[in-house]
Amino acid sequence: MTTASYDSPTERYSYKSAMIDSLRGSPEGVQVGRVNLRLAEKFGFCWGVDRAVAMVWDAIRENPGRTIWLLNQIIHNPKVNEDFLRERVRFVFGPYASEGGFDGIRQEDLVVIPAFSAEVEHMNRLQEIGCEIVDTTCPWVEKPHRRVLRYLEDGYTVLIHGLRNHDETRATCSLVESKQGHFLVVNDMEETEFLCGFLLKQEPLSAFQEKFASRTSTGFDPEQHLVQLGIINQTTMLASESRAIAVKVAKTMLERDGAGKSSSNFRDFDTICPATQDNQDAVMSLPDDMDVFLVLGGYDSSNTRNLLRAAKSRHGSYHLQSPRAIEGNTLHHRDPQSGQEVVAANWLPEGPVTVGLSAGASTPDTELEAVIRKVCESAGEELSAQAVAADTPQS
Ligand code: SF4
Q: In three state form, how does the secondary structure of the chain look?
């Protein structure tokens, strides 16, 4: 690895793509033979991811010979994490974890906290070890943390629209418990409707306990801890669903408590981050007449999964994890219902075809470029620099 290339922030890592930059801002799409490529107006690396990845590269450059750890995946993208593995960065938790994990960290090591933040007990343990900590937590992830502390100070239980096992929500839940507060996590509207039924005494306690057993704080007592609720959301959830959940809970509290009490028993604060909102809005404003819609990003990337949900009305929508997912007429993708990887045959129709594309906030542009090349190859077309330049509006 050379050090000179790090001097420019835009060149210090190789995730930029001149081709993708050319395609950005081309609302009519680019015609490559029989394929019309339509990129969403906003997609790919957000500010927080860009910053976190740059901070890891800087740590590697500034600490030759030192053992550098990532507490977990820096972001949910296999390519980026595997690049760090190749640089001999070690992982404490997650799919790339080194044997021994935490026990292997020494005082002289450097540990990077991912953009999602970290659980309080893990931060405490690192402080006990006395190693250097580089914290890449995104400021947009800190925002719900600040709101949580205010809810807890005022005696509210924190209702989180999020995924209990997502790193960001795990960190939020641990923050609540570290302050002896209480939380309840709902994944989606279906669970919110069940919760609201329980608040209105339409669902039995046993069903509530069974449904939320793994998603409430230790010692959670529904009698005590559902009186005052303050809502936040994981920053990368589907924004429209988060808003609908807040409205549903507010209406239910009004029905349960009456106008006077419900206003003091319920608080709401939207913590979806702007990058998530912009990428979802851009997917929703793509034309409806596309034949195929591809969303690129890690299978465990919440914001990528929600880009697929934002495109729910479209036929032929697929979530793929890397350019390797496309093998001619075969496409490997994540089935949103089962969460498993499945294979679609003949995914690209014959004849003229419009292919819409977006990418999660943790997806490098270079990966999207490689997907576009594979799409064209699968269609039997060649994507030349001239084709891109000819169709791209000049500024
Ligand atoms: S998706 Fe939002 S919260 Fe997550 S790193 Fe990017 S800007 Fe930060």
A: CCCHHHHCCCCCCCCCCHHHHHHCCCCCCEEECCEEEEECCCCCCCHHHHHHHHHHHHHHHHCCCCCEEECCCCCCCHHHHHHHHHCCCEECCCCCECCCHHHHCCCCCEEEECCCCCCHHHHHHHHHHCCEEEECCCHHHHHHHHHHHHHHHCCCEEEEECCCCCHHHHHHHHHHHHCCCCEEEECCHHHHHHHHHHHCCCCCHHHHHHHHHHHECCCCCHHHHCCCEEEEECCCCCHHHHHHHHHHHHHHHHHHHHHHHHHHHEEECCCCCHHHHHHHHHHHCCCCCCCEEEEECCCCCHHHHHHHHHCCCCCCEEEECCHHHEECCEEEEECCCCCCEEEEECCCCCCCEEEEEEECCCCCHHHHHHHHHHHHHHCCCCCCHHHHHHHCCCC
